[in-house]
Protein backbone atom coordinates (compact mmCIF):
# COMPACT_ATOMS: atom_id res chain seq x y z
CA UNK A 1 0.00 0.00 0.00
CA UNK A 2 1.31 3.41 -0.90
CA UNK A 3 1.78 5.99 1.84
CA UNK A 4 -0.89 8.13 0.17
CA UNK A 5 -3.34 5.26 0.68
CA UNK A 6 -2.72 5.41 4.42
CA UNK A 7 -3.58 9.10 4.37
CA UNK A 8 -6.70 8.42 2.30
CA UNK A 9 -7.91 5.67 4.67
CA UNK A 10 -7.27 7.90 7.66
CA UNK A 11 -9.11 10.81 6.04
CA UNK A 12 -12.12 8.62 5.27
CA UNK A 13 -12.08 7.37 8.84
CA UNK A 14 -12.09 10.94 10.13
CA UNK A 15 -14.98 11.92 7.87
CA UNK A 16 -17.04 8.84 8.71
CA UNK A 17 -16.55 9.15 12.48
CA UNK A 18 -17.24 12.89 12.29
CA UNK A 19 -20.55 12.15 10.56
CA UNK A 20 -21.36 9.49 13.15
CA UNK A 21 -20.47 11.91 15.97
CA UNK A 22 -22.68 14.59 14.38
CA UNK A 23 -25.58 12.14 14.18
CA UNK A 24 -25.09 11.11 17.80
CA UNK A 25 -24.92 14.75 18.89
CA UNK A 26 -28.15 15.44 17.06
CA UNK A 27 -29.82 12.51 18.86
CA UNK A 28 -28.73 13.87 22.22
CA UNK A 29 -29.92 17.38 21.37
CA UNK A 30 -33.34 16.01 20.36
CA UNK A 31 -33.80 13.69 23.32
CA UNK A 32 -36.84 15.71 24.45
CA UNK A 33 -38.18 16.62 21.00
CA UNK A 34 -41.73 15.24 20.57
CA UNK A 35 -41.99 12.64 17.81
CA UNK A 36 -38.21 12.47 17.17
CA UNK A 37 -36.81 9.10 16.10
CA UNK A 38 -33.17 8.48 16.86
CA UNK A 39 -30.88 8.24 13.87
CA UNK A 40 -27.94 6.01 13.09
CA UNK A 41 -25.01 6.57 10.76
CA UNK A 42 -24.78 3.39 8.70
CA UNK A 43 -21.08 2.66 8.32
CA UNK A 44 -19.73 0.40 5.53
CA UNK A 45 -16.24 -0.48 4.35
CA UNK A 46 -15.03 0.98 1.08
CA UNK A 47 -14.54 -1.51 -1.79
CA UNK A 48 -11.04 -3.04 -1.43
CA UNK A 49 -8.35 -2.67 -4.03
CA UNK A 50 -5.87 -5.32 -5.16
CA UNK A 51 -2.18 -4.64 -4.57
CA UNK A 52 0.34 -7.27 -5.71
CA UNK A 53 -2.48 -9.77 -6.01
CA UNK A 54 -3.73 -9.18 -2.49
CA UNK A 55 -6.99 -7.39 -1.49
CA UNK A 56 -6.28 -4.26 0.51
CA UNK A 57 -8.86 -2.31 2.47
CA UNK A 58 -9.54 1.29 1.51
CA UNK A 59 -11.30 2.52 4.62
CA UNK A 60 -14.85 3.29 5.69
CA UNK A 61 -17.71 5.50 4.57
CA UNK A 62 -21.19 6.50 5.82
CA UNK A 63 -23.60 4.91 3.38
CA UNK A 64 -26.59 6.80 4.79
CA UNK A 65 -28.10 8.10 7.97
CA UNK A 66 -31.17 6.05 8.85
CA UNK A 67 -33.89 6.72 11.38
CA UNK A 68 -34.79 3.96 13.80
CA UNK A 69 -38.47 3.51 13.09
CA UNK A 70 -41.06 0.71 13.29
CA UNK A 71 -43.79 1.02 10.66
CA UNK A 72 -45.92 -1.62 12.39
CA UNK A 73 -45.95 0.26 15.70
CA UNK A 74 -46.80 3.47 13.84
CA UNK A 75 -49.78 1.72 12.23
CA UNK A 76 -50.91 0.34 15.58
CA UNK A 77 -50.69 3.78 17.17
CA UNK A 78 -52.71 5.30 14.34
CA UNK A 79 -55.39 2.62 14.74
CA UNK A 80 -55.57 2.79 18.54
CA UNK A 81 -55.39 6.59 18.65
CA UNK A 82 -58.68 6.72 16.76
CA UNK A 83 -60.46 4.85 19.54
CA UNK A 84 -58.60 6.83 22.20
CA UNK A 85 -59.68 10.16 20.72
CA UNK A 86 -63.26 8.91 20.47
CA UNK A 87 -63.69 7.69 24.05
CA UNK A 88 -61.58 10.50 25.51
CA UNK A 89 -63.76 13.28 24.08
CA UNK A 90 -66.94 11.44 25.08
CA UNK A 91 -65.69 10.85 28.63
CA UNK A 92 -64.69 14.51 29.03
CA UNK A 93 -67.90 15.84 27.48
CA UNK A 94 -70.27 13.53 29.31
CA UNK A 95 -68.56 14.15 32.67
CA UNK A 96 -69.46 17.83 32.42
CA UNK A 97 -72.88 16.98 31.03
CA UNK A 98 -73.53 14.55 33.90
CA UNK A 99 -72.84 17.25 36.48
CA UNK A 100 -75.23 19.59 34.69
CA UNK A 101 -77.95 16.93 34.33
CA UNK A 102 -77.65 15.95 37.99
CA UNK A 103 -78.01 19.52 39.20
CA UNK A 104 -80.83 20.42 36.81
CA UNK A 105 -82.59 17.10 37.40
CA UNK A 106 -82.50 17.61 41.16
CA UNK A 107 -83.98 21.08 40.76
CA UNK A 108 -86.70 19.72 38.44
CA UNK A 109 -87.62 16.95 40.88
CA UNK A 110 -87.86 19.45 43.74
CA UNK A 111 -90.08 21.69 41.62
CA UNK A 112 -92.33 18.76 40.69
CA UNK A 113 -92.66 17.74 44.33
CA UNK A 114 -93.48 21.29 45.40
CA UNK A 115 -96.06 21.69 42.63
CA UNK A 116 -97.96 18.49 43.39
CA UNK A 117 -97.68 18.99 47.16
CA UNK A 118 -99.18 22.47 46.84
CA UNK A 119 -102.16 20.98 44.98
CA UNK A 120 -102.53 18.48 47.84
CA UNK A 121 -102.50 21.38 50.25
CA UNK A 122 -105.11 23.17 48.13
CA UNK A 123 -107.34 20.08 48.32
CA UNK A 124 -107.53 20.52 52.10
CA UNK A 125 -108.94 24.04 51.75
CA UNK A 126 -110.38 24.36 48.26
CA UNK A 127 -111.94 27.79 48.81
CA UNK A 128 -108.73 29.51 49.96
CA UNK A 129 -107.47 32.01 47.30
CA UNK A 130 -104.06 32.32 48.97
CA UNK A 131 -103.40 28.61 48.48
CA UNK A 132 -104.18 29.08 44.80
CA UNK A 133 -101.53 31.80 44.70
CA UNK A 134 -99.07 29.34 46.25
CA UNK A 135 -99.97 26.80 43.55
CA UNK A 136 -99.41 29.43 40.89
CA UNK A 137 -95.96 30.23 42.35
CA UNK A 138 -94.91 26.57 42.42
CA UNK A 139 -96.21 26.11 38.85
CA UNK A 140 -94.07 29.05 37.70
CA UNK A 141 -91.07 27.49 39.45
CA UNK A 142 -91.79 24.20 37.69
CA UNK A 143 -91.96 25.98 34.33
CA UNK A 144 -88.63 27.69 35.02
CA UNK A 145 -87.08 24.33 35.94
CA UNK A 146 -88.24 22.75 32.67
CA UNK A 147 -87.17 25.82 30.68
CA UNK A 148 -83.76 26.00 32.39
CA UNK A 149 -82.96 22.32 31.92
CA UNK A 150 -84.05 22.49 28.29
CA UNK A 151 -81.88 25.57 27.70
CA UNK A 152 -78.89 23.92 29.39
CA UNK A 153 -79.21 20.83 27.22
CA UNK A 154 -79.60 22.95 24.11
CA UNK A 155 -76.50 24.97 25.05
CA UNK A 156 -74.62 21.71 25.50
CA UNK A 157 -75.68 20.57 22.05
CA UNK A 158 -74.63 23.87 20.49
CA UNK A 159 -71.27 23.71 22.25
CA UNK A 160 -70.65 20.27 20.78
CA UNK A 161 -71.54 21.58 17.32
CA UNK A 162 -69.04 24.41 17.77
CA UNK A 163 -66.41 21.90 18.81
CA UNK A 164 -67.21 19.83 15.73
CA UNK A 165 -66.40 22.92 13.67
CA UNK A 166 -63.16 23.49 15.61
CA UNK A 167 -62.12 19.85 15.13
CA UNK A 168 -62.75 20.09 11.38
CA UNK A 169 -60.62 23.24 11.17
CA UNK A 170 -57.75 21.51 12.99
CA UNK A 171 -58.06 18.47 10.73
CA UNK A 172 -57.75 20.74 7.69
CA UNK A 173 -54.65 22.45 9.14
CA UNK A 174 -52.95 19.11 9.86
CA UNK A 175 -53.93 17.69 6.46
CA UNK A 176 -52.46 20.70 4.69
CA UNK A 177 -49.15 20.38 6.56
CA UNK A 178 -48.97 16.64 5.85
CA UNK A 179 -49.48 17.32 2.13
CA UNK A 180 -46.69 19.91 2.25
CA UNK A 181 -44.42 17.43 4.03
CA UNK A 182 -45.20 14.82 1.36
CA UNK A 183 -43.92 17.24 -1.25
CA UNK A 184 -40.82 18.20 0.77
CA UNK A 185 -39.93 14.55 1.40
CA UNK A 186 -40.09 13.67 -2.31
CA UNK A 187 -37.98 16.70 -3.22
CA UNK A 188 -35.38 15.86 -0.56
CA UNK A 189 -35.13 12.27 -1.75
CA UNK A 190 -34.72 13.42 -5.35
CA UNK A 191 -31.66 15.40 -4.21
CA UNK A 192 -30.23 12.30 -2.54
CA UNK A 193 -30.95 13.61 0.97
CA UNK A 194 -32.39 11.64 3.89
CA UNK A 195 -35.49 13.57 5.06
CA UNK A 196 -35.59 11.83 8.44
CA UNK A 197 -36.76 14.88 10.40
CA UNK A 198 -39.50 15.58 7.86
CA UNK A 199 -40.72 11.99 8.10
CA UNK A 200 -40.73 12.20 11.91
CA UNK A 201 -42.82 15.34 11.77
CA UNK A 202 -45.23 13.76 9.29
CA UNK A 203 -45.60 10.59 11.38
CA UNK A 204 -46.35 12.65 14.48
CA UNK A 205 -48.97 14.68 12.61
CA UNK A 206 -50.58 11.49 11.31
CA UNK A 207 -50.74 10.11 14.86
CA UNK A 208 -52.26 13.36 16.12
CA UNK A 209 -54.70 13.49 13.23
CA UNK A 210 -55.81 9.91 13.88
CA UNK A 211 -57.04 11.02 17.32
CA UNK A 212 -59.32 13.54 15.64
CA UNK A 213 -60.82 11.36 12.91
CA UNK A 214 -60.65 7.73 11.78
CA UNK A 215 -57.89 7.37 9.20
CA UNK A 216 -56.75 4.89 6.63
CA UNK A 217 -53.08 5.47 5.81
CA UNK A 218 -51.22 4.14 2.76
CA UNK A 219 -47.73 4.97 1.53
CA UNK A 220 -46.60 4.81 -2.09
CA UNK A 221 -43.18 3.92 -3.51
CA UNK A 222 -42.08 7.55 -3.46
CA UNK A 223 -42.67 7.76 0.30
CA UNK A 224 -45.82 9.90 0.10
CA UNK A 225 -48.78 9.03 2.33
CA UNK A 226 -52.45 9.08 1.32
CA UNK A 227 -54.98 9.70 4.08
CA UNK A 228 -58.64 8.69 3.89
CA UNK A 229 -61.01 9.98 6.59
CA UNK A 230 -64.31 8.15 6.61
CA UNK A 231 -64.65 7.45 2.89
CA UNK A 232 -63.11 10.75 1.78
CA UNK A 233 -59.53 11.35 0.64
CA UNK A 234 -58.14 14.28 2.63
CA UNK A 235 -54.47 13.97 1.59
CA UNK A 236 -53.11 12.57 -1.65
CA UNK A 237 -49.54 13.34 -2.47
CA UNK A 238 -49.01 17.10 -2.26
CA UNK A 239 -52.77 17.76 -2.48
CA UNK A 240 -55.16 18.11 0.44
CA UNK A 241 -58.95 18.34 0.43
CA UNK A 242 -60.67 20.38 3.10
CA UNK A 243 -63.56 19.18 5.23
CA UNK A 244 -66.36 21.61 6.02
CA UNK A 245 -69.39 21.76 8.33
CA UNK A 246 -72.94 22.71 7.55
CA UNK A 247 -76.18 22.70 9.52
CA UNK A 248 -78.59 20.11 8.18
CA UNK A 249 -82.12 18.82 8.64
CA UNK A 250 -83.12 16.21 11.20
CA UNK A 251 -82.19 12.65 10.25
CA UNK A 252 -82.27 9.59 12.49
CA UNK A 253 -80.70 10.48 15.83
CA UNK A 254 -79.50 13.82 14.50
CA UNK A 255 -81.69 16.80 15.42
CA UNK A 256 -82.53 19.55 12.97
CA UNK A 257 -79.85 22.22 12.77
CA UNK A 258 -77.01 19.93 13.87
CA UNK A 259 -73.61 20.18 12.22
CA UNK A 260 -72.85 17.68 9.45
CA UNK A 261 -69.49 17.01 7.78
CA UNK A 262 -68.76 17.52 4.09
CA UNK A 263 -65.67 17.05 1.93
CA UNK A 264 -64.78 19.38 -0.95
CA UNK A 265 -62.76 17.03 -3.16
CA UNK A 266 -64.59 17.47 -6.46
CA UNK A 267 -65.72 21.08 -6.21
CA UNK A 268 -69.16 19.93 -5.01
CA UNK A 269 -69.45 19.35 -1.20
CA UNK A 270 -70.26 15.70 -0.45
CA UNK A 271 -71.61 14.68 2.97
CA UNK A 272 -69.54 12.08 4.82
CA UNK A 273 -71.05 12.38 8.32
CA UNK A 274 -72.23 8.76 8.48
CA UNK A 275 -68.84 7.49 7.31
CA UNK A 276 -66.98 9.02 10.26
CA UNK A 277 -67.06 6.32 12.90
CA UNK A 278 -64.12 7.05 15.18
CA UNK A 279 -61.85 9.73 16.58
CA UNK A 280 -62.72 12.94 18.44
CA UNK A 281 -64.91 14.18 15.58
CA UNK A 282 -67.11 11.08 15.73
CA UNK A 283 -67.08 11.21 19.55
CA UNK A 284 -68.45 14.75 19.58
CA UNK A 285 -71.26 13.84 17.20
CA UNK A 286 -72.00 10.60 19.07
CA UNK A 287 -72.22 12.44 22.41
CA UNK A 288 -74.55 14.93 20.76
CA UNK A 289 -76.75 12.45 18.88
CA UNK A 290 -76.76 9.46 21.25
CA UNK A 291 -76.78 11.16 24.66
CA UNK A 292 -77.80 14.83 24.57
CA UNK A 293 -80.49 14.52 21.91
CA UNK A 294 -82.19 11.53 23.63
CA UNK A 295 -81.99 13.41 26.95
CA UNK A 296 -83.72 16.41 25.37
CA UNK A 297 -86.38 14.18 23.85
CA UNK A 298 -86.79 12.48 27.23
CA UNK A 299 -87.23 15.85 28.95
CA UNK A 300 -89.69 17.04 26.30
CA UNK A 301 -91.76 13.88 26.81
CA UNK A 302 -91.90 14.49 30.57
CA UNK A 303 -92.92 18.14 30.10
CA UNK A 304 -95.52 17.24 27.47
CA UNK A 305 -97.01 14.50 29.64
CA UNK A 306 -97.21 16.72 32.73
CA UNK A 307 -98.85 19.56 30.80
CA UNK A 308 -101.29 17.22 29.06
CA UNK A 309 -102.36 15.31 32.20
CA UNK A 310 -102.70 18.43 34.35
CA UNK A 311 -104.66 20.24 31.63
CA UNK A 312 -107.02 17.28 31.23
CA UNK A 313 -107.79 17.23 34.94
CA UNK A 314 -107.96 21.01 35.29
CA UNK A 315 -110.39 21.35 32.37
CA UNK A 316 -112.91 19.28 34.35
CA UNK A 317 -113.02 21.82 37.19
CA UNK A 318 -114.10 25.40 37.81
CA UNK A 319 -112.27 28.39 39.19
CA UNK A 320 -113.58 30.70 41.89
CA UNK A 321 -115.43 32.56 39.13
CA UNK A 322 -117.48 29.43 38.39
CA UNK A 323 -116.11 29.03 34.85
CA UNK A 324 -114.82 25.60 33.74
CA UNK A 325 -112.88 24.11 30.82
CA UNK A 326 -109.71 26.12 31.36
CA UNK A 327 -106.19 24.86 30.68
CA UNK A 328 -103.70 25.20 33.52
CA UNK A 329 -100.56 25.09 31.35
CA UNK A 330 -100.01 26.33 27.81
CA UNK A 331 -101.32 24.06 25.11
CA UNK A 332 -98.32 22.41 23.43
CA UNK A 333 -100.16 20.99 20.44
CA UNK A 334 -99.66 17.42 19.24
CA UNK A 335 -95.84 17.42 19.10
CA UNK A 336 -93.57 16.78 22.07
CA UNK A 337 -90.62 18.55 20.44
CA UNK A 338 -89.52 21.65 22.41
CA UNK A 339 -92.22 20.97 25.03
CA UNK A 340 -89.81 21.57 27.93
CA UNK A 341 -88.61 24.88 26.50
CA UNK A 342 -92.17 26.07 25.81
CA UNK A 343 -93.59 24.78 29.10
CA UNK A 344 -95.44 27.52 31.03
CA UNK A 345 -98.70 28.67 32.58
CA UNK A 346 -101.69 29.46 30.42
CA UNK A 347 -102.46 33.16 30.03
CA UNK A 348 -105.62 32.90 32.18
CA UNK A 349 -103.85 31.33 35.16
CA UNK A 350 -100.82 33.59 34.77
CA UNK A 351 -103.03 36.70 35.03
CA UNK A 352 -105.36 35.52 37.83
CA UNK A 353 -104.61 32.74 40.31
CA UNK A 354 -108.25 32.67 41.41
CA UNK A 355 -109.10 30.94 38.13
CA UNK A 356 -107.24 27.80 39.29
CA UNK A 357 -109.76 24.98 39.69
CA UNK A 358 -109.81 22.90 42.85
CA UNK A 359 -113.15 21.12 42.36
CA UNK A 360 -115.42 20.04 39.56
CA UNK A 361 -118.02 22.52 40.74
CA UNK A 362 -118.17 25.67 42.82
CA UNK A 363 -119.74 23.79 45.67
CA UNK A 364 -118.01 24.34 49.04
CA UNK A 365 -115.46 21.64 49.84
CA UNK A 366 -115.28 20.23 46.31
CA UNK A 367 -111.61 19.29 45.97
CA UNK A 368 -111.80 16.55 43.32
CA UNK A 369 -109.67 18.40 40.72
CA UNK A 370 -106.96 19.34 43.19
CA UNK A 371 -106.77 15.73 44.38
CA UNK A 372 -106.75 14.40 40.81
CA UNK A 373 -103.88 16.71 39.84
CA UNK A 374 -101.88 15.83 42.95
CA UNK A 375 -102.27 12.12 42.16
CA UNK A 376 -100.76 12.59 38.71
CA UNK A 377 -97.39 12.52 40.47
CA UNK A 378 -97.89 8.84 41.35
CA UNK A 379 -99.29 7.70 38.01
CA UNK A 380 -97.15 5.64 35.61
CA UNK A 381 -97.68 8.01 32.70
CA UNK A 382 -94.33 7.71 30.87
CA UNK A 383 -94.00 4.64 28.60
CA UNK A 384 -90.97 2.50 29.34
CA UNK A 385 -90.30 1.48 25.73
CA UNK A 386 -89.40 5.09 24.90
CA UNK A 387 -87.44 5.91 28.04
CA UNK A 388 -85.39 2.77 28.48
CA UNK A 389 -86.95 0.59 31.17
CA UNK A 390 -89.03 -2.53 31.77
CA UNK A 391 -91.99 -0.79 33.47
CA UNK A 392 -93.68 2.55 32.98
CA UNK A 393 -92.42 5.49 35.01
CA UNK A 394 -93.91 8.17 37.18
CA UNK A 395 -92.88 11.74 36.47
CA UNK A 396 -90.20 11.77 39.19
CA UNK A 397 -88.94 8.34 38.14
CA UNK A 398 -88.63 9.61 34.58
CA UNK A 399 -86.47 12.54 35.69
CA UNK A 400 -84.30 10.17 37.74
CA UNK A 401 -84.07 7.84 34.76
CA UNK A 402 -82.91 10.70 32.53
CA UNK A 403 -80.10 11.55 34.97
CA UNK A 404 -79.14 7.92 35.57
CA UNK A 405 -78.90 7.18 31.83
CA UNK A 406 -76.45 10.04 31.46
CA UNK A 407 -74.50 8.71 34.43
CA UNK A 408 -74.38 5.18 32.99
CA UNK A 409 -73.12 6.49 29.65
CA UNK A 410 -70.51 8.63 31.39
CA UNK A 411 -69.26 5.74 33.52
CA UNK A 412 -69.03 3.45 30.49
CA UNK A 413 -67.08 5.97 28.41
CA UNK A 414 -64.77 6.78 31.33
CA UNK A 415 -63.94 3.09 31.78
CA UNK A 416 -63.38 2.71 28.05
CA UNK A 417 -61.10 5.76 28.07
CA UNK A 418 -58.94 4.38 30.89
CA UNK A 419 -58.66 1.04 29.10
CA UNK A 420 -57.82 2.61 25.73
CA UNK A 421 -55.34 5.03 27.27
CA UNK A 422 -53.46 2.09 28.80
CA UNK A 423 -53.22 0.43 25.37
CA UNK A 424 -51.93 3.60 23.68
CA UNK A 425 -49.50 4.31 26.54
CA UNK A 426 -48.10 0.80 26.19
CA UNK A 427 -47.62 1.25 22.44
CA UNK A 428 -46.08 4.70 22.90
CA UNK A 429 -43.68 3.33 25.53
CA UNK A 430 -42.64 0.62 23.09
CA UNK A 431 -42.17 3.19 20.34
CA UNK A 432 -40.03 5.28 22.67
CA UNK A 433 -37.95 2.26 23.74
CA UNK A 434 -37.33 1.39 20.10
CA UNK A 435 -37.18 4.79 18.40
CA UNK A 436 -36.56 7.18 21.25
CA UNK A 437 -33.19 8.51 22.36
CA UNK A 438 -31.38 6.64 25.12
CA UNK A 439 -28.83 9.09 26.52
CA UNK A 440 -26.64 6.40 28.07
CA UNK A 441 -26.46 4.52 24.78
CA UNK A 442 -25.71 7.73 22.87
CA UNK A 443 -22.94 8.60 25.34
CA UNK A 444 -21.31 5.20 24.78
CA UNK A 445 -21.60 5.65 21.01
CA UNK A 446 -19.99 9.07 21.27
CA UNK A 447 -17.02 7.61 23.15
CA UNK A 448 -16.73 4.82 20.57
CA UNK A 449 -16.80 7.18 17.59
CA UNK A 450 -14.45 9.63 19.32
CA UNK A 451 -11.94 6.85 19.97
CA UNK A 452 -11.97 5.76 16.33
CA UNK A 453 -11.78 9.40 15.23
CA UNK A 454 -8.63 9.88 17.34
CA UNK A 455 -7.17 6.63 16.01
CA UNK A 456 -7.85 7.71 12.43
CA UNK A 457 -6.14 11.01 13.12
CA UNK A 458 -3.16 9.12 14.55
CA UNK A 459 -3.05 6.90 11.44
CA UNK A 460 -2.91 10.02 9.28
CA UNK A 461 -0.11 11.38 11.42
CA UNK A 462 1.80 8.14 10.97
CA UNK A 463 1.21 8.30 7.21
CA UNK A 464 2.42 11.90 7.19
CA UNK A 465 5.56 10.87 9.11
CA UNK A 466 6.25 8.05 6.67
CA UNK A 467 5.82 10.42 3.73
CA UNK A 468 8.32 12.88 5.29
CA UNK A 469 10.82 10.02 5.78
CA UNK A 470 10.47 8.97 2.14
CA UNK A 471 10.96 12.56 0.96
CA UNK A 472 14.06 12.85 3.20
CA UNK A 473 15.58 9.69 1.68
CA UNK A 474 15.13 11.13 -1.81
CA UNK A 475 16.99 14.23 -0.79
What does this structure look like?
The protein is an alpha+beta fold and 475 residues long. The protein has a domain at 3-68 and 436-474. It has 11 helices and 11 strands. The chain has helices at 3-29, 71-124, 129-190, 196-212, 279-315, 339-342, 347-351, 368-375, 384-387, 395-435, 439-474; strands spanning 39-45, 49-51, 54-56, 60-67, 215-219, 225-229, 232-236, 239-240, 243-248, 258-263, 270-271. Strands 5-6-7-8 form a 4-stranded antiparallel sheet. The longest helix is centred in the middle third of the chain and has 62 residues, at 129-190. The radius of gyration is 37 Å and the shape is rod-shaped. The two termini are 22 Å apart. The relative contact order is 0.15.
Low-confidence stretches: none
Binned, the helix content reads 55-70%
| Helical/strand content category | alpha+beta
Mean pLDDT: 89
Into which percentage range does the β-strand content fall?
5-15%
Using only C-alpha atoms, the radius of gyration works out to: 37 Å
Total number of β-strand segments? 11
Sheet of most strands: 4 strands, antiparallel
Strand order of the largest sheet: 5-6-7-8
- The first-to-last residue Cα distance is 22 Å
- SSE sequence, one letter per element: HEEEEHHHEEEEEEEHHHHHHH
| Shape label | rod-shaped
